[in-house]
Design a protein that fits this description.
The protein is α/β, with parallel strands linked by helices. Helix content is 36%, strand content 19%. Strands 1-2-3-6-7-8 form a six-stranded parallel β-sheet. A hairpin with a 2-residue loop joins β9 and β10. α5 packs parallel to α6. The protein is globular, with a radius of gyration of 18 Å. Bound molecules: zinc ion. The site of zinc ion has 5 residues, from loops.
Length: 252
Amino acid sequence: MEQYIQQAISAGLSEICFLDHLTLHERGRHMSMTPSDVPLYYQTIRRLGHIYKNDILVKAGLEIDYDPENLSEIKKIIQPYDFDVIGGSVHFIDKMNIVSSKDTKLREQETIDVICADYLFLMEEMIENMAIDVICHLDITKKFGRRPSAAVKEKFEDVLSKIRYKNLAVELNTSGFNHAANEFYPDPDLLKKCFENNIRVTLGSDAHAPGQVARHFDEAMALLRETGYGAVTAFHRQADYDVPLPAPVKQL
Ligand SMILES: [Zn+2]
């Protein structure tokens, strides 16, 4: 974790937020800490935040995997802690992992339109039922390069009104450039729709290794500016505030 912070400092970030996974789904254990890891995770972030307080703000967050079966359990696990931000994401449709290459065969038995429709159903349920601040990687269903028909794509836009209604932010997740999707989550069209709906955006690199911290952030900030955004949103104890985007780097 310390290496992530050092990488963020050398990338010139003013803050870093850890957003490790918490999933209770039986098939997601390998991609998540266990509930008993949460206290150490939280305390480590606060301790490192103190050590690095003159160099960078260090925030404690969680990316919670929406799982209708375990909603009250999740609440109980996170309740004792004062997290800065809670992100929500959908990784599983029933038993199918939509982000793991291990489940490619299973996913390919289904059309991407059906997968997207099921995904959006769960996403709407999550927005309804979970106290979250940020929607993580909104259109992650394109991770492996398959894209839905125009009619299903439009349904992603329907979700934005629910996001707006709950006053949630959307994460601009830069990891998509390293996947077959080959673009950010959400895509530029969907990001534009977020802007038109007055939805705030946070910036995330979905780093699974220290070297991935702040990956593609220059392109992401350029896209945000192009879209109309002047700031990204950050969180302190679940209260949001703006971090203005820096002026574009001049090309020599
Ligand atoms: Zn995720």
